[in-house]
C-alpha cells in the first residue's frame, strides 16, 4: 500500500509540475494617446500568434504560455509603431502605454491660407485646363478664369491680376517655378492684353491670393504658379477653327512614355467679327497675330525629367478714337509687337534629395505710334519703342527628413534689361536680382502643421538688399474643418517705367496677415478668409511729361514715400455633388483699400479696386447627349475714378466720382460628339459662347481732355461678343474628361 501511495504522490506531483509549467499568463493593459484610449490597436507578442485588439476604451487582454524575454508590439495606421521588451514569468502582466501620432501625408492638415486647394487628399489646386475651358466668360484664359475666384478684381481696361487691392503688376506668374515676364500680349491704352500661353499646356495650377511660399518673390500681392504637363497620354493631332482663329498642333509620344515632342501654330484676326458685331472700338487695323510653339520632354534612365517649352508670337493693332481736343478730330494708336519665351526645367531624385532646376528667357518688343488726325490729315507720329530682355535661373533642393519634416532651399537669379526710346528721350535699365531662400514644412501631428521660411534678395540697380520672413500655421478642428493663419513680408522692385531719375529708391514692401477657416467634404468646399495688408515704400511720382494717351512718366520726380493698406473678407462655396451632373460655385469679396502712391495727391481708394464683388458659376452636363451648358455671372460695385493733373509742380484732383456698377451674364454651350469609325474617330468639341448676353453697357473709367472740360468713357471693345468654334482631336478622347470633371 505504501509503495502504491508513494507512486501516486510522485505521479500527482508530476501532474502538478506539468500544469505549473504549462499554465497561461495573462497580459493586459491600456493603450492611449494623450491619456485618451485608442481603439483598434493591434497588440501582439512578436513572432507568435498571441495577441489582441484594443476595445473602444483602449483596453486589451490576452493569454500566452510563452515564458522569458519577448517583444510586445503595438501597431495602428495612425500611430507610430512601438516595440516594448517584456519578461514573462509566473505572474500576470499589466502594461499601459502611450503612443505618438504618426503623421500621414494624406491625413495631415494642409496649409491653404491665401490659396484655394481641392482637398487635403489631392494637393493640386482647382484650376485645371478643362475647368478654364468650360467656364462661360473665361474666354479660355487662366487669367480671366481667376476673376471668378475671391480676391481678384475684374479690371477690363488693362491686363494683369488685380488681387486684394494690389495693382496688376503686383502679382507674378510662374511656369514650373520660373518667372514668366510678359505673360500678357502687348496692349494699347484702354484695351487689355490677352494670355499669350495655351491653357492646355498646364496642369494643376495653384493660385495664391497672398501669403505665398518663400520660393517665390518680387510680388507684393499674389502669385499664380503654373505647372506644365509632364507627358501626354498618347500621340494626337488637334485642329481648331473659328471665325477669328485657325490653329493646329501635333503631339507625339513613344510607347514607353519616355520621350515626347510637340509643335503648334496659329493665326488670329478679328476683322470678320468686326464686320458682324457692333464694336464700340473703331479698329482701323483689326487685331491680328501669328503664333507658334515647340515642346519636348524626356525621362532619364535614373528617373529624371527634362521639359522644354518655347513659343513666339507677333501682333498688330490699330485703334482710332474721337479726340477730346479742339485742334484734332481723332486720336490714333498703332501697335506692332513681338515676343518670344523659352523655358527649360529638370527634376531628378538623388537618394533622399529632390533637385529642381529651371531657366527661362524672354524677349518682348512693344512698338507704339501715337498720332492725331484732322480732316483726313494725320500728324507725324510719336513713337514709343520698348525692348525687354529677361533671364531667370532657379534651383531648389528638397529633402524629406522624416515623415514630419521636409526642408527645401535654393537660389534664384533674375536679370532684366529694358531699352526705351520716345523722341529724344532714351532710357537703358539694367538690373540683376539675386535671391536665396529656405523653407521647411513641419507636421507636429495630423491636426497641427506649420510652414516657415525666409527669402533674401539683392538688387544691383537699387544697390539694396532685403530679408523677408514668412510662416503659416494650420490646425484641423475636426475631420472636415481646418483653420490656418499666414504672415509674411514681401518685397518688389519699382516698375522700370518709373525708374527714370537719379533719386535713391528702395524695395516696395507689403505685409500680409491672413486667417482662414475651411470645410472640405467629398465634392464640396467652403472657405472663409479674412486678410489685412500693409504697404510701405510705394512709388510716388510728380508727373512732368506724359506719353500721349496713357499715364507713363518719361521725366518725373520719383520717390518711395507712398503707402497704403487693404483689408477684407472673402467667401467661396463650391458644390459638385448635391445636384446630379451640376457643378456650381459662388464667391464673394469685400475689399476696403486706400493708397497714396504714383501721382495720387493724397490717400485715396484705388481706381482699380471695387468694394464688393460677386461671382456665380454653374455647369450642367448631359452625359447621354454629350452636351454641356455653362452659365456665369459677375458683379462689381462701381469703382472710383480720378482726373489727376499737375499744376505748378503739384498733383491735384480735377474731376472725381464713382462709375456705375459692373455686371455681366455669360453663356456657353459645348457639344462633344465622336466622328468616324470606331478605330479612327475624331473627337470633337463644338463651342458656342456668348459674353454679356444682356448687352449691358459696362464701363471701366474715363479719359479727360487736357483742360478737363470733356470726357469719354473707357468701354469694352464690344458689349456682347459671340464666339463659335470647333476643336477636333485625332487620337485622344476628351469627352470623358469633360464628363468626369463635372460629376
TrEMBL record:
Keyword Protease: no
Cellular compartment(s): Cell outer membrane
Keyword vocabulary terms for this entry: Cell outer membrane, Membrane, Receptor
Main location: membrane
InterPro entries in the cross-refs: Beta-barrel_TonB_sf, CarboxyPept-like_regulatory
Protein name, entry field: TonB-dependent receptor
Organism: Chryseobacterium luquanense
